[in-house]
Amino acid sequence: MSRRWGALFAAAILLASCSKPEPPTVTPRSARIAAISPSAIVLALELDVRNPNSFPLVFRAVSGSLELGNGIELGRGRAVTNGSIPAKGSSVVPTELSVSWTNVAALAPLAASPSPVPYAFRGTATIGGENLNVDLPFVVEGELTREQVLQAGLRGLGSIGLPLQ
Predict the structure, then answer these.
(1) 49 and 60 in contact (C-beta within 8 Å)?
(2) pTM given for the model
(3) What is the per-residue pLDDT across 51-89, written as a single tens digit (0 to 9) for each?
(4) What contacts 31, CB < 8 A, 6 or more positions away?
(5) Which domains does the chain have, with CATH numbers?
């Protein structure tokens, strides 16, 4: 019986000494338009992911919506990834996601506006381990100039850079 209590006591101490996992952090590094088509825009993102924990994590997916500065949603997209984030380390996770147009009519002001039009990609990075995942929000903001919109249209599936603010 005393062995049993000793084992339970040791297990309790072990559990008490385990620290609670800390959430990783996601910071946008870069964003650019990789392609534009009549049905979608492909957004290429690079995200810096820092893991403060003593165990590795897996970067599982990115999802979100592309919006104009006034809050009008242009489209939504999701990409599944399998990037690895080392224990007590960080990684740059590149991903491309196809954002299907849900409001093509909202693009008209972009081509007609002489001044830059602000945009935001409001995203969520899904990161975790084998049994537990967390969704971490992030935002990429910038401006699209009239020239960028026209250039993207002229190039068809070409690419142009999107500056981060």
Answers:
(1) no
(2) 0.74
(3) 999 999 999 999 999 988 778 898 999 999 888 999 999
(4) 43, 44, 45, 46, 121, 140, 142, 162, 164
(5) 22-162 (2.60.40.10)
